[in-house]
Specification:
By secondary structure, this protein is of the alpha+beta class. Helices cover 29% and strands 28% of the residues. β3 and β4 form a beta hairpin.
């Protein structure tokens, strides 16, 4: 498959499709993670706002895979990585992680970072296969136990 990554702009007609893809891709987490996913707070406006202030990259039209990127001090944060269920196992997540690495280098950032929920052990393994290593744990406000793990990939 030769889908090229493209950037979603704040006025993109794909904003609604991005939101739908994330909701569909993250639905399996409902009832499995505590607290519930932040994707429940996403709206077309918050997606467009992220595209305006940060970056959203997609593969396919309508989007078959998306990722949100946010430049932070010393690192590029990778969030909301979503792949359409019908396209899983075809390397789309890997291609968007590679795009994040390209963007991190372009921005002069030596690390790509992400957070994944403690309960989602299959995600931990998938990100480890992509070169990420666990660097920490954190708890959402009001929780006395870790709810997320932080993983980073140092760029050569």
């Amino acid at each position: 498959m030769t889908l090229a990554p493209y950037q979603i702009t704040p006025d993109s007609p794909q904003i609604g499709a991005v939101l739908s893809l994330i909701r569909g891709s993250f639905a399996f987490m409902d009832g499995r993670i505590d607290p519930p996913s932040s994707m429940h707070r996403l709206t077309e406006k918050t997606v467009a706002d992220h595209a305006a202030r940060h970056e959203i990259w997609a593969l396919g039209t309508p989007p078959l895979a998306v990722v949100f990127l946010t430049a932070k001090p010393g690192r590029l944060y990778l969030g909301k990585l979503a792949v359409d269920a019908s396209m899983r196992g075809q390397g789309l997540a890997r291609r968007l992680v590679t795009q994040a690495e390209v963007r991190a280098r372009a921005l002069g950032l030596p690390v790509v970072e992400l957070e994944t929920r403690v309960e989602l052990v299959e995600n931990h393994a998938a990100f480890a296969r992509l070169g990420f290593v666990k660097t920490g744990e954190s708890a959402h406000p009001g929780y006395d136990r870790p709810t997320s793990i932080t993983m980073q990939k140092a760029l050569a």
